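Quick start: what a row looks like.
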Amino acid sequence: MEEIYKLKVLSESTDGKAIKVDQTSGGGSGTDVHTTSSGKMERVTLVAYNTDSSARTLSVEWGGTTADDTLSFDLEANSEPRTIFSGLLGGTGTYSIAAYASAANVVYILGQSIEVEEQTT
């Protein structure tokens, strides 16, 4: 079997531009970041930065909305972009990523996805 790789921008990004995190609470109301393709494995990389003069916390919900599904990252004031996640997601269904921050409209997320598709020869 041969694998085919397809490089994609995050599904909620416009032409690869940064996604502004405009929500300050999660539980299903976070800013949508990316949804994997149904039945596909994807290697997703997320990069985040903070434009505020105060340090902020970014919380990312990985496929669910409970505390067990959420990882939080501290971002320094006026921070440079840094990778917060790079790994495989997906499987039989779709997998959604959403985010919220301790202040609205000052934290941004960039990223990409590499979709892995197996081809039979």
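That is the whole record. The mean pLDDT is 91. The longest strand covers residues 107-119.
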